[in-house]
Amino acid sequence: MDKPSEPTPETAMLYVGRAVENHTQEVRSMLWGLIAVVSLMLLVFVTASVTQCFIMYMIWKQDELRHQELQNLTISQKVMVEQRNGLFEHALERIKKDELRGIGTAKN
């Protein structure tokens, strides 16, 4: 039986070079995959943050408009508005505080 001949140093270096090249390509592919996953996670986080900021701004703007509408109403009209909004428990307390501070301009 013939024994397989040992590779020459040039052939061995060729095999090592190919193995290193394949390993480098695998590492590069994994690195690009990691970059893609991190980028996607960052995109989701930024989108969620922007959406949350937009929602908070819309809530603040709606509250600001509601407050401006209440400025020129009489006390009974303010109570009706608060009652319609489902806030009747705190309506009188808040209106009394506003009246004491001089926020309301219309008198009943």
Descriptive report:
The protein is mainly alpha-helical and about 110 residues long. The chain folds into two domains: about 5-60; about 70-108, no CATH class. Helices cover about 80% and strands about 0% of the residues. The protein is built from three helices and no strands. Helix 2 (about 75-85) packs antiparallel against helix 3 (about 90-100). The longest helix has about 60 residues, at about 10-70.
Q: What is the structure about, briefly put?
A:
The protein contains 3 helices and no strands. It has about 110 residues and is an all-alpha fold.
Distance between the termini: 116 Å
Average pLDDT over all residues: 82
Helicity level: over 70%
Q: What is the SS-derived class?
A: mainly alpha
The run of helices and strands is HHH
Total helices: the number is 3
SS elements, strand count: 0
User: Main sheet, how many strands, which sense, barrel?
Assistant: none
- What overall geometry do the principal axes of the alpha carbons give? rod-shaped
User: Radius of gyration, rounded?
Assistant: 36 Å
**Per DSSP, what share of the residues sits in E-state strands of 2 or more residues?**
under 5%
Low-confidence stretches: none
